[in-house]
């Protein structure tokens, strides 16, 4: 079992829900990466999704796209993110999940990326512009380095496709909860619960909800029908504002035992 | 013919569909519908009708006698896509895709546009077919091309200024895809260039292949043989895709794509995955995109259609560059010598033909694809010449 899946299952078996915050590496400078990761870790997050900025972020909404632009503007690259993570890898206790697009990995070299990512504490990878049909481009190298390749399942996926995606996904299944790109939304489609049920039918790999989750209420309401949540835009905004109270509230909402 | 090299959405090793899962599903559906209708006799009869009666095809393959004499080499033929309704080759593809949208029962069409030519062509066809039309355009482009925005609105389209990122074509494309994912049940996304995830590059090439279907027959009739070379400008690559399609198997015909020196994707780029497909792209060593600069908005693009990446890497196509100065010179030369004002995009092809013709013999002939008319560029050229 991958370390990533193990971390999620150990959270859920304790009665809590998995909580994975998304951060954009290099937003506010790469020197912020270490304190941010260590502080999130202290708050008791299950894993941390580390976004790598890219010039063509087709799956990102405005908040994360702007964070990516800021990170690129101050010189952040995949290489530098991996170097920075590696420099304090001994202090990282939660699995890191890199979210990046395919081209920076191709430019880095797939094999080299997988080897270096492992040393940087990266235990999972999400590549939103790489479809299931193309996963062999990176999968063998990731597998050799024990890095889980997480697949996204969307609301538009057919049953046949959901089955293939869920069977292929490693670590967890990233269930996209809105049609389109990332970003906080105020309400959710009613068919969501059905959708999650359908996904869970095919697998015992944990299903996490992501895209548009921005309040403790969202976190709680999703917890009813999945193993946990990924929170992106809201975390990115809160980090820019240095508003750790909001982040703490969100993490707390995933912990059944801590909520009165 | 044009579909020979395509397999599972790939031209050789280029193409594919590198998009998020939600979009993947929607594109697959569009691909199935395209496959269903592209060889349907009734569909093609209707398309032929509109290409003839509405767009004004076939257009001439015109022997540029004055230019030929002046250059003293190969005969120069001009394929007059500039004479189509809306003034460029864009209408060929728009009519094809909008008929597909109609077959799919869709009432709403969306499109992206940079300089506005594709947006105008799409708005035109939507007006005629009674479709609701939304055009996404970068906020910066809407300011630079205010008249084209008015043109589209005059035709009944809603123009959405996308105020994100740099406010250019790329942001308009992203926004259009987001719209498609949210509204795919009643919306068709009509892409104008031979780029993007499958099935778009193949679909655009197919609907543009009418250019070379005509030019090949016209040249055979006039000269009793095939041309020595076909020359077309390449940005995303739709006019060149159409100009080359029916010559791909005629190995003796040189296929020459002309890129701006400031956006020389094939000459200076390297393979990459971006904007949903694998092709050549101008990128840095970290895999991020570089900025481009061309005087022709329609060629100002970091990438290129997968067909051209394939023709380039197999050696079947030759890809060359011309400078902005050469383009400006060609723009004026064709206007003065033949009384035809070409679009700045098309002027790239003309510029290379001016260099190529004198090196060939009078037995040779070159077809230059005049993809659009230059009226839209007259003001810009005026400013550049009077600076």
TrEMBL record, chain A:
Enzyme type, top EC level: lyase
Listed PROSITE patterns: TRP_SYNTHASE_ALPHA (PS00167)
GO molecular function list: tryptophan synthase activity
Pathway as given in its UniProt record: Amino-acid biosynthesis; L-tryptophan biosynthesis; L-tryptophan from chorismate: step 5/5
Keyword Glycosyltransferase annotated: no
Keyword annotations from UniProtKB, A to Z: Amino-acid biosynthesis, Aromatic amino acid biosynthesis, Lyase, Tryptophan biosynthesis
Stretches assigned to coiled coil: none
Enzyme Commission number(s): 4.2.1.20
Residues the record marks as active site: 49 (proton acceptor), 60 (proton acceptor)
Enzymatic reactions: (1S,2R)-1-C-(indol-3-yl)glycerol 3-phosphate + L-serine = D-glyceraldehyde 3-phosphate + L-tryptophan + H2O
GO cellular component: cytosol
Pfam families assigned: Trp_syntA
The keyword Metal-binding is assigned to this record: no
Superkingdom, natural source: Bacteria
Family: Belongs to the TrpA family.
Summary of subunit composition and partner proteins: Tetramer of two alpha and two beta chains.
Free-text function comment from the UniProt entry: The alpha subunit is responsible for the aldol cleavage of indoleglycerol phosphate to indole and glyceraldehyde 3-phosphate.
PANTHER family documented for this protein: TRYPTOPHAN SYNTHASE ALPHA CHAIN, CHLOROPLASTIC, TRYPTOPHAN SYNTHASE, ALPHA CHAIN
NCBIfam families: trpA (TIGR00262)
Protein name according to UniProt: Tryptophan synthase alpha chain
Originating species: Ureibacillus xyleni
UniProtKB/TrEMBL annotation, chain B:
Keyword Lyase: yes
Keywords, alphabetical: Amino-acid biosynthesis, Aromatic amino acid biosynthesis, Lyase, Pyridoxal phosphate, Tryptophan biosynthesis
GO molecular function: tryptophan synthase activity
Pathway this chain belongs to: Amino-acid biosynthesis; L-tryptophan biosynthesis; L-tryptophan from chorismate: step 5/5
InterPro entries cross-referenced by the UniProt entry: Trp_synth_b_CS, Trp_synth_beta, Trp_synth_beta/beta-like, TrpB-like_PALP, TrpB-like_PALP_sf
Coiled coil segments of this chain: none
Known catalytic reactions: (1S,2R)-1-C-(indol-3-yl)glycerol 3-phosphate + L-serine = D-glyceraldehyde 3-phosphate + L-tryptophan + H2O
Enzyme class: lyase
Cofactor(s) the protein needs: pyridoxal 5'-phosphate
Taxonomic superkingdom: Bacteria
GO CC annotation: cytoplasm
Alphabetical list of SUPFAM superfamilies matching this protein: Tryptophan synthase beta subunit-like PLP-dependent enzymes
The protein's Enzyme Commission number: 4.2.1.20
The Tryptophan synthase beta chain-like PALP domain, residue ranges: 56-372
N6-(pyridoxal phosphate)lysine modified-residue sites: 90
Subunit structure: Tetramer of two alpha and two beta chains.
Family, similarity comment: Belongs to the TrpB family.
Summary of the function given for this chain in its UniProt record: The beta subunit is responsible for the synthesis of L-tryptophan from indole and L-serine.
Name of the molecule in the record: Tryptophan synthase beta chain
Organism: Ureibacillus xyleni
């Amino acid at each position: 079992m991958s370390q990533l899946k193990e971390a999620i299952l150990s959270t859920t078996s304790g009665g809590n829900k998995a909580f994975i915050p998304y951060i954009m590496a290099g937003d506010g400078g790469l020197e912020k990466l270490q304190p941010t990761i260590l502080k999130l870790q202290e708050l008791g997050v299950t894993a941390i999704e580390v976004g790598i900025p890219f010039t063509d972020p087709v799956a990102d909404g405005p908040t994360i796209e702007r964070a990516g632009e800021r990170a690129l503007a101050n010189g952040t690259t995949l290489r530098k993110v991996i170097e920075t993570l590696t420099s304090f890898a001994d202090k990282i206790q939660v699995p890191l999940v890199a979210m990046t697009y395919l081209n920076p990995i191709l430019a880095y070299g797939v094999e080299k990326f997988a080897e270096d990512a492992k040393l940087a504490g990266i235990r999972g990878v999400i590549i939103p512009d790489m479809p299931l049909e193309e996963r062999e481009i990176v999968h063998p190298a990731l597998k050799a380095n024990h890095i889980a390749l997480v697949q996204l399942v969307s609301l538009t996926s057919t049953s046949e496709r959901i089955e293939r995606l869920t069977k292929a996904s490693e670590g967890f299944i990233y269930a996209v909860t809105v049609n389109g790109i990332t970003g906080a939304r105020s309400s959710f489609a009613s068919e969501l619960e059905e959708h999650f049920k359908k996904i869970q039918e095919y697998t015992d790999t944990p299903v996490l909800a992501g895209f548009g989750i921005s309040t403790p209420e969202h976190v709680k309401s999703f917890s009813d029908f999945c193993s946990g949540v990924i929170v992106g835009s809201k975390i990115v905004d809160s980090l820019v504002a240095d508003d750790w109270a909001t982040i703490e509230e969100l993490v707390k909402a995933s912990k059944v035992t801590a909520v009165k | 013919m044009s579909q020979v090299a395509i397999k599972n959405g790939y031209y050789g090793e280029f193409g594919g569909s590198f998009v998020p899962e939600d979009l993947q599903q929607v594109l697959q559906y569009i691909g199935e519908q395209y496959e269903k209708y592209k060889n349907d006799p009734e569909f093609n009869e209707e398309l032929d009708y509109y290409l003839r009666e509405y767009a004004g095809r076939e257009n001439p393959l015109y022997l540029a006698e004055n230019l030929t004499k002046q250059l003293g080499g190969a005969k120069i033929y001009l394929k007059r896509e500039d004479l189509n309704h809306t003034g460029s080759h864009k209408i060929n593809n728009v009519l094809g895709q909008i008929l597909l949208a109609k077959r799919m029962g869709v009432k709403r069409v969306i499109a992206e546009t940079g300089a506005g030519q594709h947006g105008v062509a799409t708005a035109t066809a939507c007006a005629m077919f009674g479709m609701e039309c939304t055009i996404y355009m970068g906020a910066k482009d809407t300011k630079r091309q205010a008249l084209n925005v008015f043109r589209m609105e005059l035709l009944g389209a809603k123009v959405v200024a996308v105020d994100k990122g740099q406010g250019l074509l790329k942001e308009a494309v992203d926004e259009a895809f987001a719209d498609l994912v949210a509204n795919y049940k009643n919306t068709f996304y009509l892409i104008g260039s031979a780029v993007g995830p499958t099935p778009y590059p193949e679909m655009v090439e197919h609907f543009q292949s009418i250019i070379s279907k005509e030019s090949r027959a016209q040249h055979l009739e006039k000269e009793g043989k095939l041309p020595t070379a076909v020359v077309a400008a390449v940005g995303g690559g739709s006019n060149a895709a159409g100009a080359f399609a029916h010559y791909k198997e005629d190995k003796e015909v040189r296929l020459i794509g002309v890129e701006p020196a400031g956006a020389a994707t094939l000459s200076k780029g390297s393979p990459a995955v971006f904007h949903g497909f694998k092709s050549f792209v101008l990128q840095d060593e970290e895999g991020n995109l570089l900025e481009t600069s061309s005087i022709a908005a329609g060629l100002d693009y970091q990438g290129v259609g997968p067909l051209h990446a394939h023709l380039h890497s197999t050696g079947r196509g030759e890809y060359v560059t011309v400078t902005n100065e050469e383009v400006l010179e060609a723009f004026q030369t064709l206007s003065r010598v033949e009384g035809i004002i070409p679009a700045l995009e098309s002027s790239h092809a003309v510029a290379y033909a001016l260099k190529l013709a004198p090196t060939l013999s009078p037995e040779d002939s070159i077809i230059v694809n005049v993809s659009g008319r230059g009226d839209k560029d007259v003001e810009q050229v005026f400013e550049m010449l009077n600076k």
